[in-house]
Write a structure and sequence with these properties.
By secondary structure, this protein is of the alpha/beta class. The chain is built from eleven helices and eleven strands. The strands form three sheets. The chain has a seven-stranded mixed β-sheet with strand order 1-11-10-9-2-5-6, with helices on both faces. The protein has a two-stranded antiparallel ribbon with strand order 3-4. The longest helix is centred in the middle third of the chain and has 21 residues.
Amino acid sequence: MVYHIPWIYTPVRTVLAIWHQLTKTEMPELAKCSVLMRERSRVEETIHAMQRAGAGSLQVISDFDMTLTRFAHNGKRVPTTHNILDNRLLINEDCTRKMRELLNTYYPIEIDASRSAEEKLPLMVEWWTKVHELLIEQKIRRDMLAHAVKESSAMLRDGYKVFFECLAEHQVPLLIFSAGVGDVLEEVIRQNHVFHPNIHIISNYMDFDQTGVLQAFKGQLIHTFNKREGALSHAAGLRELQGRPNVVLMGDSLGDLTMADGVSEPQNVLTIGFLNDQVEERKESYINSFDVVLVKDETLDVPNAILRYITSSRDE
């Protein structure tokens, strides 16, 4: 369950004046036409509450693929961590063909607004399990992963350096929940020179044998619609997250909304959703679910503006 602070009665003129100040002066990014909000006043109240509490009470929880990474660039899709493995250094043409067939079958199901999460869940397990089985068959070598990432067109969203460095500077934990491949995810962050000590990753990690060949995937399978289980089982064990009841949550799927369920006694949770494609079909459900919806926005400008506002006043 995602918590928000309760509405506190404030005269309408005061709310409008504060909001005008936020959008026009301190956070003009929130006034962009690509930014949608169901309840602007609640977003404003939540941001103000987080600012009053300061950076020491904040943590950020984010998805990775198509959230911290771009969805597209120059009209072409940017590869996810699974797509990066589609490299002749790692897998053969038959495996590539089968993985694309699985993508064409299951991705439309994942983003289908007419299907419930409960209906999608077993199909997502089926998809991820089949992909992992294909990858294991390829006997991928660990020492080739960095080359595959370097040769790929993987891209973090514009403004990523500001995002990662702001969180590191203010010692705000960044918990990345990803249904992708953790080993590849880490390499993408590392090659962009933003892998700071405040980053914690929960993802699907490869298990290599003594010769460095992929033999299995470790632990519980993480997919788009079971992140709540991962949140409950992992987040509580991270000491760095204790005593940080304010959360900025970022994702590109409705399934990402459960990533904050592991937070102990949350006070203020602000959810930011990236609506990357099938906008008209999914716009209503995103506006009804996320506090802030960013439509076809390939930047981190809005999260950066919010984080800058929260961290700037109380750390001085």
